[in-house]
Write the structure tokens for this entry.
Amino acid sequence: MNPSLLRGQSEEGSLMPHGGSEGLDTGASSGRSTPIPPDAPPSAQSISSARRQVRALQKHRIFPTVEYAARFSHFDPRSEHQDFRGFFSLFWIGLAIMVITTMLRNIKDTGYPMRVRPWNQFTINIWELALSDGAMVVSTALTLPLHRLFRASNGWLRWGKAGMAAHSLYQGGWLIFWVSWPFLLNWTWTAQVFFTLHTLVLLMKMHSYAFYNGHLSETRRRLSALDKPGTVSTASAIRYPSSKSPLGQIDRDEEGRKHEDEKESLAQLREDLAIELTSPLGHVTYPQNLTALNYIDYILCPTLCYELEYPRTPRVVKSELLYKILAVFGCIFLLTITSEEFILPVLQDSASRLEQVESVLEFGLVLAESVSQLLFPFMVTFLLVFLVIFEYVLGAFAEITCFADRHFYSDWWNSCDWLE
């Protein structure tokens, strides 16, 4: 097995993925290769061989994808970054003090611990928002029948011809419609922000699914055509530049071999194409993934990059899932407190004071004071938004889908410049 994909303990902390060895049943495969008949076409033999090889060693893929591994998040207690837990706990202690102080002040001023005004923002049009969001998610499923149409076509609708353009037009129309929807219905700003962000997330997921499967459909088409090599090109497979190299550059050694060795064997070409059609874990081969269940699973998985197969955990940890869900609502509660008590009053006060300024100097002083008062609440808001999205929302969906790679972010707080 690929040690960087499936390992008991990684350098960043790891989960034991479901199907961590060939002998384990993953639900997608028995872990053993099904024998193929001796008279099977060369393309079928290449795929069978590729599935065995990928289980033993992941080779450089033609289309570069994210390398998924079974890992913990930085804030998980099981992570090796436990020396950061003290600052993490101190952060929550500080927020608890802020909430208690705010509630005591509200009781003194109004007789109630919480203000009612901000909570109305979350309850207005909530059913319209839920139904619209569900309809938007369902509308992305049209990607699957469209891809099946492109894959079945041998004419101008195939992916390498008009299929890519047709799906791009569908994505553009889909984006324009759903981005306009909350503004046409005149929703509150909180609903508009949530719906727009979810629209962009679904657009990226839909794009990744369509274009990666489109690439695989053309790869499969070429592999099948090599069963009669006299009628098709036998040039080596074109490898896309990886994210680790500058844009537009391809591995020099491979380019050198391509030009110097025109005699690359047909068997090697079949092997390269067959490996491209096989998942990194070696249990799924295109087009076995073109099912409704696979698409639903991908929509729920906390990733924007489609892959034929992801590393999984053995089961859902219900206590962990409950903790993540409660943390989501807790962070939303803290965000509301921060904006209502420390951001909106400063903005309202500065707006009224700026209307009464009589000189440029006074304008600058009011503006500087307002910005300085907003720096800390904005920093707290940024950290809470980061936590609720990348740690708790994505963590909850990872637990629901048994998605083993919880490494949704790196230690950006240790960065020394913007490039890092």
About this structure: The two ends are 31 Å apart (CA to CA). The first helix runs from residue 42 to 56. Residues 1-14, 16-33 have pLDDT under 50 and may be disordered.
